[in-house]
Amino acid sequence: MRITVCLSQQKPEPWVAGLQAALPGAQVSAWQPGDPPADWAVVWAPPQAFIDEQTDLRALFNTGAGVDALLQLRLPPGLRVVRLDDAGMSVQMAEYVCHAVIRHFREFDGYEADTREGRWSYRKPRSRADWPVGVMGLGVLGTRVAQALRVFDFPVHGWSRSPREVPGVVCHAGEAALDGFLTSCRVLVNLLPLTPQTENILNRQTLGRLLPGGYLINVARGAHLVDDDLLALLDSGHLAGATLDVFRTEPLPANHPFWSHPRLTVTPHTSARTLRDESIAQIAGKIAALQRGEPVAGVVDPVRGY
Ligand code: NAP
Ligand code: GLV
């Protein structure tokens, strides 16, 4: 059994060594053009040339949760694409989003500015009933985030394509329910996959439906957000601010207005990192399961796009 590793933004060697240790019977190597075709591939944003050489693949494992970059490629029809299914990401995402929500809700930026100037100042406590949080996408990450926000007693709404049930969360489903979901929320967290249906979904119209003084947390993909619409809504005062972890172009270009906007927090696509050891264990477990003919979680539906 041959496993090939092709990672566009990381050194493949530790992945090769980890997979080899987890599957000692396999022949694992970092892809070189012209290698014999492999049975299994472990990839992040591989070049089309890599895909074109893989004529015998049983499955392609993506070393991230989002498969938008992979689905841009010409993949052989019927190829099984498997994404990371949590693998240590959901707890990171929950802590990132809760941090952003609480930092804004408790006005920690304002307190920090005051204390830097030696001011002992109180702000009026806010009622969390006035700060309903909406989570777009109730999948692996969105559900964990919604549950974590409930721990702090925020009213939480969720929105998904098909109906979901998450205890304590008001769940909305489908396009027809989007407006009711948005008008119920002051803080909006985006955890949708990037698909033709969700591209540009964070725009003047949708963000304009949030309660006044709204706050956006985009942790999914940069192409979900229409950048100029966000800036316009910040200028008009309808939005109070945003925390952005993902961007249309990454790294965020040096001259992009998001860098210097006083009410934006920018982080470098780091809200939920791929954890190598957890991911290798998950992928090795799935290869073994597929070899035994068992089903695995995280198989991508190419028609849905996630
Ligand atoms: P997931 O388990 O596939 O969940 C996706 C959720 O979005 C599901 O609830 C799905 O609805 C919903 N959805 C999809 N299309 C929709 C539509 N058109 N309308 C309404 N809801 C829709 O994905 P995940 O593992 O939670 O990951 C979500 C995304 O997070 C990834 O695709 C990736 O882009 C991003 N991500 C970012 C980072 C980072 O560091 N910033 C890290 C990891 C992942 P159903 O429940 O009905 O299927
Ligand atoms: C990161 O953005 C991922 O999709 O895993």
Short description:
With 306 residues, the chain is of the alpha/beta class. It is 31% helix and 17% strand. It has helices at residues 13-22, 48-53, 68-71, 89-105, 108-116, 140-151, 178-183, 204-207, 227-236, 276-291; strands spanning 2-7, 27-30, 40-44, 59-62, 81-82, 133-136, 156-160, 169-173, 187-190, 214-218, 239-244, 264-266.
Structure notes:
This protein has 306 residues and is α/β, with parallel strands linked by helices. The protein folds into two domains: 2-87 and 274-291, NAD(P)-binding Rossmann-like Domain (Rossmann fold, 3-Layer(aba) Sandwich), CATH 3.40.50.720; 90-266, NAD(P)-binding Rossmann-like Domain (Rossmann fold, 3-Layer(aba) Sandwich), CATH 3.40.50.720. The protein has ten helices and twelve strands. It has helices spanning 13-22, 48-53, 68-71, 89-105, 108-116, 140-151, 178-183, 204-207, 227-236, 276-291; strands at residues 2-7, 27-30, 40-44, 59-62, 81-82, 133-136, 156-160, 169-173, 187-190, 214-218, 239-244, 264-266. The strands form two sheets. It has a seven-stranded parallel β-sheet with strand order 8-7-6-9-10-11-12. The mean pLDDT is 98. NADP nicotinamide-adenine-dinucleotide phosphate (NAP) is lined by residues 65-66, 89, 137-142, 159-162, 164, 191-195, 197-198, 219-221, 245-246, 269, 271-272, 306.
